[in-house]
Request: fold
Amino acid sequence: MSMPDLLLIGGATEEMLHRLSEKFTIHALADIADPIAWLAEHGDKISYVATNGHDGILPAYMEAMPNLKVISCYGVGYDAIDTAAAAARGIHVTHTPNVLNAEVASTALLLMLACYRNFLAEDAHVRSGAWEREGNAPLSRSADNQTVGILGMGRIGQKIAKIAKSLGMIIHYHNRSKLSEEKEQGAVYHDSLKSLFSVSDVLSICCPATKETVNLINKETVEYFPKGAVITNVARGDIVDDEALIDALNRRKIYAAGLDVYKGEPNLNPGYLKIKTAFILPHLGSATKDTRTAMANLAIDNIDEFFNTGNCRNKVN
Ligand code: 8YV
Reply:
């Protein structure tokens, strides 16, 4: 019996390819010179797409696969996929929640602590020989007793809250709606951005990128923060208006920024590179071997579940 056809968009690990190849005939988009022409000829036989949060899927590709049943996203964020257009075509979109909560949360904490304790400058102090020549590096700031504002208290936000609380930080949050007391774990709810930002010594952005959250950090909202606040982002670059944040960093309204994600990444706004208190990572929130393996397995389990039952618990549309 011939195996169903799957289009692979973006990269995949050896293990992923191995698992997928046991059940599917894989067509890797990366090996296809002219995807639109190829899809015009072969699109009707593709029933599954495996992609990731960065590459998503172009609407034109979706259109060219009339028998597509599932788009499985290797990642929790699926903003690069038009889920409404998929639903209108009867296509199920799935993602990989939960398995990356701890990894992304520890990245968020790493960014916060790096900003407070000036780790980047301190590492440079040792490497440049300044420690020997000039003595100790300047004193940094304590994260103890600082108020963390969590923007988006979902699965990852709640994990960040838990770790930050264990470090002696005070947790406030803004979400579309207030959480149950059990989920809040003592965190203070704010029903507006202005109210949350005005008490946040450090903001942790961990909400999805949607039409409503694009450029939430902008010229106006950056002024809501106390002077010298820290902003961190492990969610999506689209949530931040880079010019506004860079300007606020340059005039020390915002003391430091810890960023893992950027608009247009990997081509981030070069303004960040010049700022000594911008701690910048290359979108590695979930990028450990263990977590990426768990994500890859879940992305394939999602396809399998649909294949076997016609439904999937990690469906988002
Ligand atoms: C991945 C992510 O880098 O899960 C997400 O939403 O941003 C990351 O874990 C991304 O999905 C690309 O694979």
Q: What stands out?
A: Residues 79 and 209 are 6 Å apart (CA to CA). The first helix runs from residue 14 to 23. The two ends are 31 Å apart (CA to CA).
